[in-house]
Design a protein that fits this description.
about 120 residues, 2 domains, flat
Amino acid sequence: MDYLLAVLLPQLLHGLVFGAALGLLALGLTVIFGLLGVMNFAHGELFMLGAYAGIGVIGATGSFWLALLAAPLIVGVVGAALDLPDDQLAHRCEQTIRNYDPCISCATHFLRLEVERL
């Protein structure tokens, strides 16, 4: 009985929570791909940016509830500021290329993000 309560039950709960998080991520990717026709791999990066923003707000103010409200706003502002030059470049490329393929744009954007990490 001790093994059940001490080891097995927490592992089952952890597996359920982790599976639910993966399911939500898969649903998000499915919705984005279904609506836009382009796969968006930025979910994880934005989640981590929101976590760091939330921890920063908690450290500065000591309020969890303020961090819960401020973190999505911070992520939105930072994401929009970083993505605006990419969108302008992509629209310029769309206008100059006759046979524009969104998959090529997605692939080059993904490669640029990977090179940016180095």
